Amino acid sequence: MKIIKETLADDAKAYLKGYIRSADDTSAHENYPAVIVVPGGSYTHIPEQQAETLALAFANLGYQSFYLRYHFIGEKTPLLPAPVVDLARAVALIRNHAEEWHIDPTTIVLAGFSVGGHIVSLYSDYWQTDQLRTQAGSTGTDLQPQAVILGYPVISPLLGFPTDEATLAIWTAAPETVAADQHVSEQNPPTFIWVTADDPLVPAKNSLAYAAALAEHQVPYELHVFHHGPHGMALANHLTAWKRDADQPHVAHWLTLANEWLNDTLSQSDQGSAIRNDQGSRQIDRQSADAASKHA
Q: Where does the record place the BD-FAE-like domain (predicted)?
């Protein structure tokens, strides 16, 4: 496995880190689907060990895996849309390096968690717009995602997070433009959403509102609301548990459910041929198993 790191902006703040199967590891399939993990962190940081563990979990499911370090509060004012532009540049970068990195350029999945889910849901709404293409320096359809996973996502600042107007003002001067549930269209990609009903930080109504918007626009989606669990669970097992209650075997099923959904979704669109048949059987790389992460 080769580890790569590519900067995405002139200020070198945003970067994409990837875990790439080398040529020696790709004898079974020439190309693989790609996934970009977009972690949380309240727009002030990202929990890098958690992000790496999530990326490696997808790598063990047969993906060329990446995580995005996007711009934080204080690096852009107002902050948005800079993180969304960072993600657009990451998607375009992966497509531009598809041959070198053994990636099927028609199969790119985005997986956002907490405020990373805010970035991904906004990206899902806006990827096809001329404005985002111009901001990212991109053209054509090279920004299109094929599927999206949202874990305990922030969807709208009007739905309970953030809780203070000062923070919101740092995010944006126009909250309605970053309310992702209000900008869904028929061009949004198929979406898998999971959340816990009693999430104490980001209310579950964020996920419910986004699912309702997807349904209204006839966008394929799947929604799982688990009955209990704290915010920022990531894999919901000991690898990413930042406190005891964040290790929840029942909630940890989300990854298997998402993997099954991805297989079905990508195969229906004739874009899942590169996924390994044995992708559910391997264990997560133990390089990242020795540290719990801060919540998202």
A: 27-213
